[in-house]
Amino acid sequence: MKQFNLLIQTPGRGYYLITKEITDAIGDDVGIIDVGLLHVFLKHTSASLTINENADPTVRDDFKNFEEELVRRDFPFTHDYEGPDDCPAHIKSSLFGCELTIPISNGKLALGTWQGVYLCEHRDSTQNRNLLITLNN
Amino acid sequence: MKQFNLLIQTPGRGYYLITKEITDAIGDDVGIIDVGLLHVFLKHTSASLTINENADPTVRDDFKNFEEELVRRDFPFTHDYEGPDDCPAHIKSSLFGCELTIPISNGKLALGTWQGVYLCEHRDSTQNRNLLITLNN
Amino acid sequence: MKQFNLLIQTPGRGYYLITKEITDAIGDDVGIIDVGLLHVFLKHTSASLTINENADPTVRDDFKNFEEELVRRDFPFTHDYEGPDDCPAHIKSSLFGCELTIPISNGKLALGTWQGVYLCEHRDSTQNRNLLITLNN
Question: Any coiled-coil ranges, and where (chains A, B, C) (predicted)?
Answer without folding.
Answer: none
